[in-house]
UniProtKB/TrEMBL annotation:
The keyword NAD does not apply. It comes from the Eukaryota. One of its GO terms (cellular component) is membrane. This is Uncharacterized protein. It comes from Acrobeloides nanus. InterPro entries: Glyco_trans_14.
Length: 505
């Protein structure tokens, strides 16, 4: 018999209402019909409570057994953690209301020029045509997780098994244009990847709060608590990147990309993973001739003076029995680094003194440290390169970021920022043909329509087309000098001579 706190159902009924004989007597004594009805109602209520109590007990008992089971998961990915948070929605792409009338499909292809001209050139003024859609973050933008997930599609499982086994990390310094960054996250988001934001000190409180709110909605999206004062001269760029790379050590990933606020995804996640697979551990770091006015040559740049290796014995003797020194190079701070290279930088090297000495100069200092580490032969960095090509007059460009520097003949918008062309809808078709991973830059306050149509295309290629490497030029990526260098070095069994490397292919 079911009991409720030690009482049987019959005993409870008898105590509350009396026995059948008692009820009969009360009837005969003139009990009112109203009281009788209330009494019967109370009896029914208590029976229902007892039944619900029993059902609740059974459910709780089953739940207890369920949660006592050990959780089984594949430690090679983060999928199990990222898929339990949300139900699986169907892929969707929603334009912002101010861009809802854009026919993005007509922005691409052979016939796109006429549509674009009719859209943005009614006044024959390319840079400031009234029809160009411009957007600034709304003050009342909803920031709860449901609103974020309703604005953009964030998948809860990897698109393919290949991508699941090749997680990526995105490191980005941010300070403005929150909604753009949310759209950019959605374009690259997949639960096996990890994302770290370093908030620039110049960001306002609303922006800062929004980034932190965003991180609460996804377990693989984080923001560092420490902030740096980053400027256009490059100060604190690499200390900020290093802060994020440290924070990302708890996640599993194969390559990390270092990015700035307005770097825009150019390839699908599948394509980036495929390109890095071809790289086979090589780092994508630009290696150009340095401008020595950006380096204080009066400082001690030997490994020993920098205390560069944590193992002090490696700082003492290099090639030819002399103390090893850095081989200078420069290049974009935006780069793609293998996990082995990042571990080398964070665990084997001590970059504190190196970064501090580089920071003393006043311009372009973010372009010095990583290319120099990449090109210093004495370091033998994982996935690294050589200085021999620069010594032979051959500069090595990278593919992480694509920009067009000041050139009136090659910037259709005729709009520049820090000497870099700002792209608009008239650039969309040409940008589909570049081999780079990211584009710099689109700005929402200049042409939000271009951003919208670019992200719509990425969405369609990610979710409405079958993932394939056919649209990638495999031979191009394999012929990049630092990729060839990596393959030749791995095949040499320790007998590789960088001086004999063919820099031109």
């Amino acid at each position: 018999m079911i009991t409720y706190h030690g009482y049987s159902k019959i005993r409870l009924l008898n105590e509350v209402f009396g026995s059948r004989e008692d009820i009969s007597v009360k009837k005969k004594s003139g009990m009112s019909w109203i009281r009788y009805i209330l009494t019967i109602s109370a009896a029914i209520l208590i029976i229902v409570c007892i039944a619900l109590s029993y059902i609740d007990y059974e459910i709780m008992d089953q739940a207890k057994n369920l949660y006592n089971k050990p959780i089984e998961w594949d430690s090679s990915t983060l999928i199990s953690f990222n898929t339990v948070q949300r139900t699986k929605p169907k892929p969707f792409f929603i334009k912002h209301p101010i861009a809802k009338d854009l026919q993005c499909a007509q922005m691409y292809g052979d016939n796109s020029k006429e549509y674009i001209q009719n859209w943005i050139l009614p006044n024959k003024n390319v840079s400031y045509a009234r029809s160009r859609i411009q957007y600034q973050d709304e003050k009342d933008l909803k920031m709860d997780c449901d609103s974020i997930n309703n604005r953009s599609y964030f998948p809860v499982e990897p698109r393919t098994d290949f991508e699941a086994k090749f997680p990526l990390a995105f490191v980005r310094i941010v300070y403005t244009d929150y909604l753009f960054l949310e759209m950019e996250l959605a374009a690259s988001y997949t639960p096996q990847n990890s994302y770290c934001y370093m908030i620039d000190k110049k960001a306002d409180k609303i922006f800062r709060d929004r980034i932190h709110n965003l991180t609460k909605c996804f377990p693989n999206v984080i923001a560092t608590t420490r902030e740096y004062d980053v400027d256009s001269a490059g100060h604190n760029v690499w200390p900020a990147f290093i802060e994020c790379l440290y924070a990302l050590q708890k996640f599993e990933w194969r390559y990390a990309m270092t990015l700035q606020n307005h770097d825009i995804l150019a390839k699908t996640n599948y394509e980036i993973a495929q390109i890095f697979t071809w790289f086979n551990g090589a780092n994508d770091v630009e290696v150009l001739n340095p401008k020595m006015d950006r380096i204080d040559t009066n400082l001690n740049w030997t490994f020993e003076g920098l205390n560069l290796f944590r193992n002090a014995s490696k700082n003492l003797i290099g090639a030819h029995g002399l103390p090893p020194k850095l081989n200078w190079a420069k290049g974009y701070a935006e780069s793609s680094l293998s996990r082995e290279m990042v571990n080398f930088m964070l665990i084997e090297l001590n970059l504190t003194t190196l970064m501090r000495q580089i920071e003393v100069k006043s311009f372009g200092i973010d372009e010095i440290m990583l290319p120099t580490l990449q090109a210093t032969d004495a370091l033998d960095a994982p996935g690294g390169f050589t200085h021999a090509c620069l010594d032979k007059g051959k500069e090595i460009f990278h593919i992480t970021r694509y920009s067009r520097w000041y050139d009136n003949t090659n910037c259709p918008t005729q709009y520049f920022r820090h000497a870099i062309c700002i792209f608009g809808v008239e650039d969309l078709e040409s940008l589909t043909k570049i081999p780079s991973l990211f584009i710099n830059k689109f700005i929402p306050t200049f042409d939000f329509g271009a951003l919208t149509c670019w992200y719509e295309r990425l969405f369609n290629r990610t979710y409405l087309e079958e993932p394939t490497e056919e649209k990638l030029d495999k031979n191009f990526y394999l012929s990049i000098p630092y990729v060839r260098f990596q393959y030749e070095k791995l095949k040499s069994n320790g007998n590789f001579d960088p001086q004999k490397f063919n820099c031109t292919g």
